[in-house]
Write a structure and sequence with these properties.
PurK_C, D-amino Acid Aminotransferase, Chain A, domain 1, about 30% strand, globular, phosphoribosylaminoimidazole carboxylase activity, 11 helices, binds adenosine-5'-triphosphate, 4-stranded parallel beta sheet, binds magnesium ion, Rossmann fold
Length: about 350
């Protein structure tokens, strides 16, 4: 069988490797971090730095296709790999999602709504942007942010200089604050032949800037769901996308207006419910797409909730084992830390 190369060794890579094995494929995981959760379930792994060319060449020799479980892979690493083996999703998707300014500019160019935004390269830019967009606003680093890291809210009376210093003076973007009613995500897949399939729209609630609970289907009107899926499809088509794509969106109080918050060129935490809750999981779907296989049936098997298990409360997890209808997933992370995703639980309820 073929071997899928996976860049990144976190829980997303772990669940991707498990799905690959279920289809009779091998996974080779490349990650700089010792003890990565995906290593122990993959057929093989390479623990080496992103700029270790000997290790990268070894990885390329072992795999037939390369994919990734996170988007912040250095450009030089991507160039080295792409010269040797096919990469899916491709470079355009990766580059667009790595930079919030490029991402918002691209999404807006498709006629899909985004929050008002402005480029911020210094305190003077930030002051001008605040004049234009008003307060509150959110200042975000253009690159490398996740779980709300690298962003700061600017309220009335807050100093622009202090906000810019707080995010470390990196190239940034200012976004107008969106008074959203709900947050949703669309997990979809596109194949190399342009086939497209979306899972039902997910509704996401965050706690301390980290995803807490996903509920499916999202409690939004049907036309809005269709609009959300159409936006995801427009993005996937324009990127000539291959693989699973996640698009996070805000729903405004009018129940009609949708604004794209960000995209992730990969499987996503808000799609974990698909393992038990859909006929094809997001991980299986991703494997199918990157291998050039037909996409799977995305239909739901019930209503689903997915709750992240964060931190170190191991005793609470034990109770889940006894709960009918609950499926426990633990990622095998050796050390629990506050804010660290240790596992999740999916509950499937009848329609
Ligand atoms: P993730 O872990 O999803 O990758 P991230 O660090 O990349 O998160 P965002 O998704 O941009 O950050 O923002 C995190 C959360 O902050 C959003 O889910 C939303 O709740 C809130 N947020 C972000 N941007 C805005 C905005 N312009 N207006 C209102 N709330 C926002
Ligand atoms: Mg993000
Ligand atoms: Mg986000």
């Amino acid at each position: 069988g073929a071997t899928i190369g996976i860049l990144g060794g976190g829980q997303l890579g772990r669940m991707m490797a498990i799905a690959a094995a279920g289809y009779g494929l091998k996974a080779c995981v490349y990650c700089p971090d010792a003890g990565s959760p995906a290593f122990e379930v993959a057929a093989s792994h390479i623990q080496a730095a992103w700029d270790d060319e000997a290790a990268l060449a070894d990885f390329c020799a072992r795999v037939d296709v390369i994919t990734y479980e996170f988007e912040n892979i250095p450009a030089a690493t991507v160039a080295f790999l792409m010269a040797r083996k096919p990469l899916a999703p491709g470079l355009k998707a990766l580059e667009t999602s790595q930079d919030r300014l490029a991402e918002k500019t691209f999404v807006a160019s498709l006629g899909v709504g985004v929050a008002p935004f402005a480029r911020v390269d210094g305190v003077a830019d930030l002051e001008a942007a605040l004049e234009k967009l008003g307060r509150p606003a959110i200042l975000k680093t253009r690159r490398f942010g996740y779980d709300g890291k690298g962003q700061v809210r600017i309220n009335d009376g807050d100093s622009a200089a202090a906000a810019f210093a707080a995010i470390g003076q990196a190239p940034a973007i200012l976004e107008g604050f969106v008074p959203f009613d709900r947050e949703i995500s669309v997990i979809s897949a596109r194949s190399a032949t342009g086939e497209f399939a979306a899972f039902d729209v997910c509704e996401n609630v965050h706690r301390h800037h980290i995803l807490d609970v996903t509920t499916v289907p999202a409690a939004v009107p049907g036309p809005l769901r269709q609009k959300a899926v159409a936006a995801a499809r427009a993005i996937a088509d324009a990127l000539e996308y291959v693989g699973v794509l996640t698009v996070e969106m805000f729903v405004l109080a009018d129940g009609e207006t949708l604004l794209v918050n960000e995209t992730a060129p990969r499987v996503h935490n808000s799609g974990h419910w698909t393992i038990e809750g859909a006929r094809t999981s997001q991980f299986q779907q991703h494997v199918r797409a990157v291998c050039g296989w037909p996409l799977g049936d995305t239909s739901r098997l019930g209503r689903a909730t997915m709750t992240n298990l964060i931190g170190d409360d191991i005793d609470a997890w034990r109770a889940i084992l006894a709960e009918p209808g609950a499926s426990l997933h633990l990622y095998g992370k050796a050390e629990a830390r506050p804010g660290r995703k240790m596992g999740h639980v999916t509950r499937i309820l009848p329609e």
